[in-house]
Structure formats: C-alpha cells, structure tokens
Amino acid sequence: MHHLLAVLCFLAGAWPAQAQTGFALIQLPDPGGALIETAIWYPGATGTAVPTRVGAFTQQLVPGAPLRGRGLPLIVISHGNGGYLASHADTALALAEAGFIVAAPTHPGDNYRDQSGAADLGGRTRQFAAVVAYMAGPWNPGAVAPERIGAFGFSAGGFTVLAAAGGMPDFGRVAPHCAAHPDFFDCRLIGAAAQAAAPQVTRSAVPLRALVVAAPALGFAFLPGSLDAVAMPVQLWQAAEDEILRAPFYVEPVRAALPRPPEFHRVQGAGHFDFLAPCNAELARVAAFICASAPGFDRAAFHARFNAEVVRFLTEALRP
User: Fold this and answer.
1) Could you tell me if residue 12 is inside a domain?
2) Among 76-85, 123-132, 186-195, which stretch is predicted with the lowest mean pLDDT?
C-alpha cells in the first residue's frame, strides 16, 4: 500500500497542473485486409480539454493536442468478445493521465457491431501485433520507447495479449473441454470453429515488457511450459463470481503456467463484466447484461482501485 501511495503521489506531481490528455481516433491497416479503428489517449502538451465523445462515454480530452514528451511508455488494450475501443475507456484515461500513450483498437470481426470473426483468434493476435508495431513506429516516430511497451487484455483480449507475447496455446484441448462443458460461453461461441482448425497465432512484432490480464479466455489451453516465453511481469485479475469464464478453467491454468509468479488479484463479489468501464445510463439501456453488477458490488468504486493498481503496476514494470 505504501508503494501504491508513493506512486500515486509521484504521478500527481509529475506533470504541470494545466497538462491535459490528448486524443485521436485513427484507422490503421490490418495485414488481413480490414482497417483497424483505434482510439489513442496520450499526454497532451497544450490545449483546453472539452467534453469528447468516446464510444458511449464522454471524457474531458483535447482532440489533436500535440504530444508532450518523447520516449514514452505505450500500452495497447485488447477488448473482449463483442467489445470495442471504449470498453476500457476509464482505464485508458487513467493511464494517459499518468504519462502513458494508450492505444485501444476495435478488433475487426469481433466487436459489438460485427461478430463474423469472433472465432478468428489468429486474426485477433494479428490485429494486436499490427497496432503495437504501428504505434511504436509510423504513428509518431520517437514518441514511444521500444523497451517500454506493455499490454492490457480482458477476456478474449486476455488470451490475445498472452498469445501475442509468446504464449503457445494448445487448441487440441478445446474439443475435450467443450465436450465436457458444452454450455460454457466460449464453447458456444468458438468451440466448433476452434476444433475445426487451429488458428495461426501472430506474435507481437515489438517485444512486450509487461502485461495486465483480466479474466483470460481459453486459459485451459495454456499447459505447463506453454507460457515460458511470457517471462515479463504480469498482473493477473480474476472475478470471484465470474459467470462467463468459470473457475477453475481459465485464470487458474494461466497462473500456474506463467514462468514467474504474477501479481495476482482475486476480486470478491465481482462478475465477469465488472472489469469493463462503469456504465452510464445510455449504455445501461442498450447493454444491460454487461452493466448489471451483483447486489452490493460497486463497480465505480472498484474501478477507482483497479485503475490505480493497473497504473501502479505498469509504472513500476515499465520504468526506464
């Protein structure tokens, strides 16, 4: 706790009081053919923050602000199945306010508008790697320190960042897992497709140095030794009441297979979707199933702690 308070105090004084968060929305090429819509939050040098629409949310941002600083750390966020670039908008903003550049793509074919590629796990890792490579180079040459790149992944995004970082999932485990648990969410979603052909997983073109992984999908596919290449610091999160990716088939195998013990957090009372940004009234009307928390669980209060822990961990892990 003392380390967390020290980091937060440092971050609070790290930038001038008038510093703002810049924002951009871009389309970058996917080697698979589609364009990848990507939101970027970053430390802004000048400008006045204005209410800015980011998906279903409104944040105080400076669209198009000049970047403040060079050689900054980068975090790329991979959302879960059916999500989009704003699924973790509050976490992205917290990281940008702490001095990170943050890029959050909407995965083509696996988002709330289009589920045609929901079973294309190889496509997810390819898209993630393309965003990392683009942000580390062509986006703003010199802006990102190549040795200070990390990732945040939730659910299917958790699988994506583990695989992109060097994990070697055994897709042969999908068939027996789904035969035993045909009612599980991932088996209904991708079971048949994943059993038909193992997807080609793309590793990140730029080495990742730290990962935050929340409720990783297909955790059972990571056998002992399969994550040996993921030797960087990992912060691993589990929702104690996860109704989508149920214990002990997802977080537990990942935790056991990581070559160095992760910083592990098990959140009492939390459900699977509590890792998503707290819903506003607009989102709650159209997506009630991802907005409802268990009675007594305060998602907004949890996210204040969650975001602080994510910022603290990544600040320490990606220190120059």
Assistant:
1) no
2) 186-195
CATH number at residue 250: 3.40.50.1820
Beta-ladder partners of 214: 154, 237
Tell whether the torsion through CA atoms of 234, 306, 184 and 269 is positive or negative: positive
Q: What is the pTM of this model?
A: 0.91
Distances (CA, A) of 9 to 87, 95, 98: 27, 15, 11
Total domains, the chain = 1
Question: Which residues have a Cβ under 8 Å from the Cβ of 297 and sit 6 or more positions away?
Answer: 269, 270, 271, 274
Q: What is the pLDDT of residues 179-201, one digit of tens each?
A: 899 889 888 877 555 544 556 78
Identify the pLDDT of residue 186.
86
Q: What is the pLDDT of residue 124?
A: 94
Which residues lie below 8 Å from residue 171, measured CB to CB, with a gap of 6+?
194, 195, 198, 199, 221
Spatial separation of the C-alpha atoms in residues 183 and 190, rounded to whole Å: 12
Q: Tell me the helix, strand and coil percentages in the chain, rounded to 5.
A: 35, 20, 40
**Domain extent for 80:** 2-7+18-317
Residue 13 inside a domain? The answer is no
Q: Is residue 82 part of a domain?
A: yes
ω before 248 within 30° of 0 (cis)?
yes
Closest by CA to 62, choosing from 25, 21, 95, is 21
CA distance 74 to 193: 33
